[in-house]
Amino acid sequence: xxxxxxxxxxxxxxxxxxxxxxxxxxxxxxxxxxxxxxxxxxxxxxxxxxxxxxxxxxxxxxxxxxxxxxxxxxxxxxxxxxxxxxxxxxxxxxxxxxxxxxxxxxxxxxxxxxxxxxxxxxxxxxxxxxxxxxxxxxxxxxxxxxxxxxxxxxxxxxxxxxxxxxxxxxxxxxxxxxxxxxxxxx
Length: 186
Description:
Blueprint lengths: L11 H48 L22 H37 L12 H6 L1 H10 L9 H27 L3
Helix pairs in contact: 2-4, 2-5
């Protein structure tokens, strides 16, 4: 039997259930908004307390590195120690020259190892053993400057990583150069 006439929206129980669900959803939304508002107010109070604490610190005596809001800031360049800068750069230059020399030797050793292995069969994957001297000599990058008493106290982890990558790429470059130059001289 087909339904004719106007839609009444279901039975009275269905309408009451929908109304209850809608009221519940509205209540949840209102509580969520209230929580967000309380959170914003709490953060605002924390910021105000932090600003008051800083002002109290400044009033009690000027502390180094702190300025008042609205006060002019005058930049003072740190003292430049030219002698220490030159010393540090000389030490670093020596280190890079040493790394350059070691990488030439390791590139030549890698070439020789690669040439001996792949001499009979150029598609032999054992030729990749040419990486062994390069990777094995990575400890020289750390030990040689220590043995030569180079002052590298200012080196950070990132500086050492850069140095190791420089060494690896340089060894690889010399290996390729020796492969092209010595395998096919003309």
